[in-house]
Amino acid sequence: MTTDLFAPLAFTRGPAMKNRFMLAPLTNTQSHADGTLSDDEFRWLTYRAEGGFGLTMTCAAHVQRQGQGFPGQLGVFGDQHLPGLTRLAAAIKAAGSVAALQLHHAGMRSPKELIGEAPVCPSEDEATGSRALTLAEVEQLVEDFVAAAVRAEQAGFDGVEIHGAHGYIICQFLSPTINRRTDRYGGSPENRARILHEIIDGVRARCRPDFNLGLRLSPERFDLELAEIRDLAQTVMAQGQIDYLDMSLWDVAKEPNEEAFKGRTLMSYFTELDRGNVRLGVAGKIMNAQTARECLENGADYVLIGRAAILHHDFPQKVAADPNFTSIALPVSREHLAAEGLSPAFVEYMNNWKGFVAQPATA
């Protein structure tokens, strides 16, 4: 296994990444209210492709109107989104980057005031005012994820990533506490993961044979159990239907939260699995060249760059020029972020992240 961040990375399906840097899917609230692509979001993403990322992934794009999780979120639930998505995919690929679109549904995390109705969840959830999906609605949800992948393929993307992390709808199905269904989508870990397997199988059946398919998982938090997610990761990799697994760890160096698993890194529980031909990537506080290299040394095939990519559109190029490169210290000025391709709406969103954006001095 290479520890060279600039060695190409081939996948079973689709084009190779020219290096080991993948742009993490990042919420940026920059697109139009109807989910169509804005010039601001186009600039933000294409600037990262030009900055050297081997794969440039969109923010989470919702596959149903009622699955919207944020204002200004990119949509992929209707053909009205095709012109913007087609323009985006072409520009990312023209910059020499693999173009990927992330498929998302927020489930119970959809704000009621944003979607204009009660959010949906595998089971009724009093805290969020969510209602349980009917069996027919679960089947429709699978169909809409697959249809969105077909739409992304039609738009010219090299592939899609299924968002199964961060407490959104697939994550809600995987949770033994949030998902209390008694039909074939609830109960055992296998039943709770059924929706994910059906989406993967549907994408494989209806997209071209060389369409690249990734999956993002969270191994803890969000009412998940580490052992279950580890077993799911092993199953999915052994089946070989996906091309890469993207593990969102919050911090690539951290130990697990669960007492029984402490004593080693959370990341190690996934790098030790038999991945077959599936590529394994990790995300979480990779802010400098050294940490990125350590991830490869510790068994990852590639790294996902989030906050460092917000701070530096050309993070891969900066690492290539300086093997000791470290991201600019936080907080940063609004001017710095604007120069890195963030619109005022995105800068305002980042202002909600404590300590990220410098605050004006008070008299």
Could you walk me through the main structural features you see in this protein, from its secondary elements to its overall organization?
By secondary structure, the chain is of the alpha/beta class. It has 2 domains: 21-327, TIM Barrel (Alpha-Beta Barrel), CATH 3.20.20; 331-363, no CATH class. It has 14 helices and 10 strands. The strands form 2 sheets. An 8-stranded parallel barrel has the order 1-2-3-6-7-8-9-10, surrounded by 6 helices. It has a two-stranded parallel ribbon with strand order 4-5. The termini are far apart.
Q: Mind sketching the topology for me?
A:
Layout: E1 21-23, H1 39-50, E2 55-62, H2 82-94, E3 98-104, H3 112-115, E4 120-121, E5 131-132, H4 135-154, E6 159-164, H5 169-174, H6 189-192, H7 194-206, E7 212-217, H8 226-239, E8 244-248, H9 268-271, E9 279-283, H10 289-297, E10 302-305, H11 307-311, H12 315-321, H13 334-339, H14 344-350
Parallel strand pairs: 1-2, 1-10, 2-3, 3-6, 4-5, 6-7, 7-8, 8-9, 9-10
Helix pairs in contact: 1-2, 4-7
Major sheet: 8 strands, parallel, barrel
Strand tally, please? 10
CATH fourth-tier homologous superfamily of the largest domain: Aldolase class I
Overall 3D form = globular
Order of helices and strands: EHEHEHEEHEHHHEHEHEHEHHHH
As for the CATH topology of the largest domain, it is TIM Barrel
> Largest sheet, order of strands side by side?
1-2-3-6-7-8-9-10
Strand content: 5-15%
Number of domains: 2
Q: Note poorly predicted spans.
A: none
